[in-house]
Design a protein that fits this description.
heterodimer, A: about 475 residues, 7-stranded mixed sheet, 5-stranded parallel sheet, 18 helices, about 20% strand, globular, B: mainly beta, 5-stranded mixed sheet, 3-stranded mixed sheet, 1 helix, 9 strands, about 5% helix
Chain lengths: ~475, ~100
């Protein structure tokens, strides 16, 4: 199978890109792991009832989903991309797996729109059953109409933390407490964003409304929380911090989101360290084009901007792909990009303020306590990473070879940021100089049986004799 | 660890999908994941780690952390948060690493 444009990820960026690309005449294929479109932000939005406790911003995602459904783009749900070979004649090759079968697709242009993941929150006890991410609580509400049973505590910071608290309250399950870890110094630093606040006043207003609604719902917010840890033997029993302790059955953690770079790093695309957002991201031009000419990145996977920015950046990438494949001339492409870029500037205006206000404390990035697990899969502690560094390991990939962190089933998705931060702190070097894991295909584990069932196009096999 | 929401807002299909989690019958809405069924069944954990043998439960619910690995309809090591429930699905505990099935 050959297409003009293959898009990985059906969140706002991927959906918007697919709809526009199809409209511009590109033979477009949208591939997604979930069985319905929307990404995490609009997950299961087609099934949501009017008046859903998830709110109007969530239900607004139905517009993008409906546009995708109405477009001529091929949509392939419940399918994972486990390998991309970017540089074969005639385009790149994507290896897909679905329902225990594998196949390859050739695409003249590839757009990676794999969105964001939640930043890991390595605290003592974070592997205990009952500790989950705030995003996980929201996904359970979106996909299964489930709310926490018993005493739920939310801890961390960022807009999603407050949103989830409010959504749980509306769904009849208010958390017993919200523990905010925002360092006091962040409030002072964020107070300097006068002009950005004006440009981003709509989003700032939304943030304020969220805060007041939380107060109105009677949810106790404890601010300036430090030294967060989980107590319990076989599951969460309590959450403790420097100044207190609260009994809990469930704890939902959140310290913001970072780009999901598993595929972009795996492809060896040039990445840079974003010191404001404290994350790695692929280097792109202002159309989303990466260091490989036939590969683009759109949405939060290229840097955190939120759902509105994601959809707009997906449209820019679609215009660019249509232009490079001869479906759009340069003048028309540039003309169509003007209002999109203006919208993008509005969407991104609030980000410097949020990034500064909700910058995680250093101890959340690189925990002081040696006993805290960094790698949940291989159960490697922060102390073991420090020891490996003292033995001479210079970067994440070497530490991985020394002590197996990042070698478990999650392939370093969760521990990657922690390992880089701990090495940086131990060596006294900036994270930018330390680097991050180099993930390898398969991007998602596949069975030997699935692999053995690959149907290979004979034209794609190079002559190796 | 989770229960159906109780805000009175209804809508969508009322049908529920009945599955079995470690011998317990539980029903969840169509489109829910096997991991959601695990949490609705009241189980504290769904796997023991291969390294330390410690108990784990679903953590991220979005295919990132792999802490929800379970045996689903006889196939071990499935990411239960990425598998949509089907009627009669059997979800079982994953004990340590999967063993090699040579049959």
């Amino acid at each position: 199978m050959t297409v003009d444009l293959a898009i990985v990820g059906a969140g706002p960026a991927g959906m918007a890109a697919a709809s526009l690309a199809a409209e511009l005449g590109l033979d477009t294929l949208l591939i997604d792991e979930a069985d319905t479109p929307g990404g995490q932000i609009y997950r299961a939005v087609e099934r949501a009832p009017e008046g859903s406790p998830l709110g109007a911003d969530y239900l607004a995602g139905r517009v993008l989903v409906a546009a995708l459904r109405a477009s001529t783009a091929q949509y392939r749900p419940a399918t994972s991309v486990w390998h991309i070979d970017p540089a074969l004649p005639g385009g790149g090759t994507l290896s897909l797996a679905a329902g225990g079968k594998s196949e390859t697709v050739t695409a003249r242009h590839i757009l990676i729109a794999t969105g964001a993941i939640e930043r890991p929150v390595p605290i003592a006890g974070w592997t205990l059953p009952g500790v989950m991410t705030a995003g996980a609580a929201q996904i359970l509400l979106k996909t299964a109409d489930l709310v926490p049973e018993g005493r739920a505590v939310l801890a961390g910071q960022g807009p999603l933390l407050y949103l989830v608290a409010l959504q749980l309250a509306r769904a009849g399950a208010p958390p017993v407490a919200v523990l905010e870890t925002t360092p006091w110094a962040n409030y002072r630093a964020a107070a300097h964003f006068g002009s950005g606040l004006w440009a981003g006043r709509r989003d700032f207003g939304r943030g304020l409304a969220l805060w007041f609604n939380l107060r109105r719902a009677g949810i106790a917010v404890r601010r300036g929380v430090r030294g967060l840890r989980v107590l319990g033997r076989r599951r969460v029993e309590a959450v403790a911090w420097e100044a207190g302790e609260i009994a809990a059955d469930l704890l939902f953690l959140h310290e913001g989101v970072i780009p999901n770079t598993q595929i972009s790093l795996g492809l060896g695309l040039t990445h840079e360290w974003d010191e404001r957002q404290l994350c790695w991201r692929p280097v792109t031009d202002d159309w989303g084009r990466t260091s490989l000419a036939n590969i683009s990145v759109a949405g939060d996977g290229g840097g955190i901007g939120g759902a509105g920015a994601a959809a707009l950046s997906g449209q820019l990438a679609a215009l660019d792909a249509a232009h490079s494949l001869g479906h759009l001339d340069t003048a028309e492409c540039d003309r169509r990009a003007i209002p999109i870029r203006a919208g993008l500037a509005r969407e991104r205006a609030i980000r410097p303020f949020f990034d500064t206000l909700y910058r995680p404390a250093d101890t959340m990035l690189s925990p002081a306590d040696d006993a805290i697990l960094a790698c949940r899969c291989e159960e490697v502690s922060v102390g073991e990473i420090r020891r490996a560094v003292r033995l001479g390991a210079t970067g994440p990939n070497q530490v991985k070879a020394f002590i197996r962190c990042g070698m478990g089933p999650c392939q370093g998705r969760v521990c990657g940021p922690i390992v880089s931060a701990v090495i940086a702190a131990e060596r006294g070097a900036p994270t930018a100089a330390i680097g991050t894991y180099r993930p390898r295909a398969p991007y998602k584990p596949i069975t030997i049986g699935t692999l053995a069932g690959v149907e290979v196009d004979p034209n794609q096999i190079a002559d190796t004799k | 660890m989770f229960r159906p929401r109780s805000d009175g807002v209804s809508g969508g299909p009322v049908a529920r999908i009945a599955v079995e989690v470690e011998g317990r019958a539980v029903s969840v809405p169509p489109g829910a994941s096997a991991a959601a069924a695990v949490l609705a069944a009241g189980l504290t954990s769904i796997r023991d780690t291969p390294i330390g043998g410690t108990e784990r439960a679903p953590y991220c619910m979005m295919g990132i952390c792999f802490d929800c690995l379970a045996e689903i309809d006889g196939v071990p090591n499935r990411q239960s948060c990425m598998v949509t429930v089907r009627p009669g699905m059997r979800i079982r505990r994953q004990r340590g690493a999967r063993s090699l099935d040579m049959s």
